[in-house]
Write a structure and sequence with these properties.
The protein is of the alpha/beta class. Helix content is about 30%, strand content about 20%. The chain is built from eight helices and nine strands. Helix 2 crosses helix 8 and helix 3 packs parallel to helix 7.
Amino acid sequence: MAKRGKKYQEVAKLVNADASYEPAEAIELVKKAAPAKFDETVEVAVRLGVDPKKQDQAVRGVVVLPNGTGKTKRVLVFAKGDKAKEAEAAGADFVGDQDLINKIQQGWFDFDVCVATPDMMSEVGKLGRLLGGKGLMPNPKAGTVTFDVANAVKEIKAGKIEYRLDRAGQIHAPIGKVSFSAEQLQENFRALVEALVRAKPAAAKGVYLRNIAVSSTMGPSVRVNPQTFR
């Protein structure tokens, strides 16, 4: 294990690694224990009581954080005609069809999220390897394959995030920045966990929310009492 720096070691003393804190206290600790000079991202990790190898226990979805993420996402929309105009009016950063497909095939990736109308997916599908490898492929479950492109763009700009179960049975997601107020982070935190609870697969048995932890980019992890959300 890599040796931690002096700043990290100092702030880590603020956190009892064996304790589970209530959400409000955990958020306060994360803010106090953020050692970097830049505005660190606050992230949540949740271990779920599901088997990630079983398709009927997959957990994936989206949630709009009430206070956003603190990061403005660059949204690309694959659309034609009126739908392209709607996307532009809604604030999409890049809108097009074959021109954007060609550009991406040439190695351009200056965007954070892709949205596509269903009629464009036969062409966008050709970018499967390129976009899929970067987690950028439009997906109906994430709300990024839709004819309602205006609403999709607005939600993404407002703080919509996607969560997805990894191979270890965990969900990792950002809930804002250290510069956010404690109340804003708590609201985002609760919105995320409540979305995960609603997404519980019918096939999941036993304790669903196993472990929850919150941390800043460079700070120590703070365990949260999962009983709060059960």
